[in-house]
Amino acid sequence: MAVILSAKTKTAHVNMMTDTIIANLPADALRSVVRTILTVEPSITNILEKQTRLYLSKTADQRIDELFASTAERMAPTANFNLAQQRLRSAIGCGMVLESFPMLENIVDESVKLDIGNAVPRLVELDHCLAAIDGDIVQASTAIQKRLLSNSGSRSLSEEEKSVMTALFDSLLRCRQRWLASAHDFPFERGTSVLAAILSRESDVETPVEENSAFYGDLAARNDPASLETFKIKDSDLPRLFAGLWQLSSPSWGVVSQSQMFEQFSEYITRGFSAFDMAGHYGDAEIIFGRLRSSLPRSMDVFGATKYCVFHRITVTPTVVRANVAERCQRMSANHVDLLQFHWQDYNDHQYIQVLHILREDERVRHLGLCNFDTLRLQEVIDNNIDVVTNQVQFSLVDARPRFRMGEVCTRHNVKLLTYGTLCGGFLAEKWLGKTEPQLFGADSTPSQRKYFEMIQTWGDWDLFQTLLRTLKDIAIKHSVSISNVATRWVLDFPYVGAVIVGARMGVSEHTEENLKTYGWRLGDDDQANIEKVLEKSRREEVFQVMGDCGSEYR
């Protein structure tokens, strides 16, 4: 079906050769080209979103038939499921989040029709699809929460918002009752919990996490103390590897059931990953973390770092600021926040100093840090006698901007960096050694890989990156570790770095043992020299000049 979109255009004409490109470029390549165009000219993002909304609105009446098939032999998703999910995710992405809730409700209702009460086997593909929808519910709910932000903090749900969310929630409760009655794990547990919290209907959902007696005693003592490295912020000794939970913000990083997530959380903690980084906009990361930590007999042994992010203009008052801290505590099932990292989008609005003064006086904030602040504003914060202990920024072999200015200020004032992007979305690994450039929209690609591939292109090119991987591999063999360990160690060896945040795709992929091999050794002078020979061939200075200081890419 051809859809002619109504929009105010300057001309209906597109150059014939340009039209030929659009008509013939493979879909994955076209997506990659569009993404590159948007990074070069971000101002046209609004056009993409508007045209997507027009398309979805004009095709809203298109019928999508049966999503799941249940026969005597098996239960599985149909080809229509992918079509329905593509429309759903496009709606969430372009701002039609309210319209996405009836779509989600329809999928949940369809899943109720599955014959789950008998011995018919469910394909793994079906479980994956249901877990993906659970992630979509979380993402749509998070998008609603972002809509609630206002100049005065956060508004209440409108009647329309409450209506569509309640309809989905009630559908989930009916579905949940049927699945649990048949002794099956409910596949939409995460989404149900998030909606219950937003609608203040937690009492309708009994989701206890049983106390885990396996965690009795000091968690750190379960590992050889000599093998774990720590750094200190005030009275807290923290591991130099944090587990980052940003992947929970979207099912694009992979999905599993909530029970599988809890299992891997437990594994992380017992292996020494006792510090976790999250944020309110990382889907249900705070909620899942809070539920798991509160189930531990010694919950104080697990450290939770989250964020207070101000992306839009607000009128700062103590009430507004303290309300956000209260929300963080409530979602994390705690009466305090171990480390609250503050992000402020618009430097032209100097109210960020006022916010930090209020946070400094809040007794629920144990430690105060920053997130994606540049060197100039970090120094300004310090000059205003605000005691911040950390700043979370991007830092890797490919993006070494903290070396230019940030490191000196951090060293002088004892501020530790918590770094992300250190493994470049997984590219700094054996998996990519000797490989051709990635298909950015392939089945296994992630948003992180799309982001960091562009970083690699800015830093150098794929050939130079392969040279870097070969150099790191030689060093890895020498120390009996992996390429990822060497890349992480390179960042950790800077004295102003407190910890590297390693992305944790809970239940999807598991690298606990490998990551722990980052501890207990250091790069020698010859290792550093060999790495530097590659880095000096890159455009690292240009990365700083083009992207700006730390965090500038978000502004």
From TrEMBL:
<dbReference type="InterPro" id="IPR023210">
    <property type="entry name" value="NADP_OxRdtase_dom"/>
</dbReference>
<keyword id="KW-0560">Oxidoreductase</keyword>
<protein>
    <recommendedName>
        <fullName>NADP-dependent oxidoreductase domain-containing protein</fullName>
    </recommendedName>
</protein>
<dbReference type="Pfam" id="PF00248">
    <property type="entry name" value="Aldo_ket_red"/>
</dbReference>
<dbReference type="GO" id="GO:0016491">
    <property type="term" value="F:oxidoreductase activity"/>
</dbReference>
<feature type="domain" description="NADP-dependent oxidoreductase">
    <location>
        <begin position="241"/>
        <end position="535"/>
    </location>
</feature>
<dbReference type="InterPro" id="IPR036812">
    <property type="entry name" value="NAD(P)_OxRdtase_dom_sf"/>
</dbReference>
